[in-house]
Amino acid sequence: MNMFKKLPYFVILQGKKYKINVDFRNMISYEKIVQNKNMNKSERIEKLIKSFYPYFFYNENYINLCRNPALYKEACEKIVWFYRCGRENYHKPSGKGTVEVSQIYSYDYDDEYIYGAFLEQYGIDLSIDKVHWWKFKALLKSLKDDTEFVKIKGYRAYDGKDENIQALKEYWALPLPKTEQERLDKLYETLK
Please, which residues bridge with residue 18 across strands? Predict the structure, then answer.
């Protein structure tokens, strides 16, 4: 990606140009679809393709896409490429070891803080303005340290021993995923 060039609104699949849904809301729902364990993989992929490629929204077009394995694979790869803002290693940790990275923000739980930060810093009303995913990610990364959202992310990422900041980290912690929470609830119930 190069933010100094024109942002993509189309992708090329097997030599043919296809319009894509570039709005940040669509890519946020992409994350939610990918993480949805209640849907099987083919259901998730179908939903992703239909939301990313408006042309494939209609069942006949989607069925034709599924009948062409090379096109289907390329269509899926372009979704991932777009999500990563055109970069290969956009969301991959660097280094050789395995590092457990804890989540420090959630679009579901931090929506008000993200909204407020964008409105305060950029004058962008995320409830009505259409914002290209790549632009949204660049602006999200560039929020000033004095916004409440950036402060909350800092508390969640804190690794030191300061008791006051540790208390803030605990206060602002994101809820555990439901399955993890259920496992802990059972463990606590057993210990009572």
Answer: 11
Task: Classify residue 100 by its DSSP letter.
Answer: P
Look at residue 32 and give its three-state secondary structure.
helix
Secondary structure class of 16 (helix, strand, coil): strand
Mean pLDDT, each 10-residue run in order, the chain (192 residues): 82 90 94 83 86 76 78 89 84 52 86 97 97 96 96 95 95 82 65 56
Tokens describing residue 120: 């305060």
Q: What share of the chain is helix, strand, coil (3-state, %, to 5)?
A: 55, 5, 40
116 closest CA partner among 87, 139, 142, 147? 147
Classify residue 162 by its DSSP letter: -
Distance CA 50, CA 28 (A): 15
Write down how long the chain is: 192
Q: Is the CB of residue 75 less than 8 Å from the CB of residue 53?
A: yes
Q: What is the pLDDT of residue 20?
A: 95
Asked whether the beta carbons of 105 and 31 are under 8 A apart, the reply is no
Q: Is 95 left (phi over 0), alpha (psi -120 to 50) or beta?
A: left
Q: How far is it, in rounded angstroms, from Cα 98 to Cα 182?
A: 26
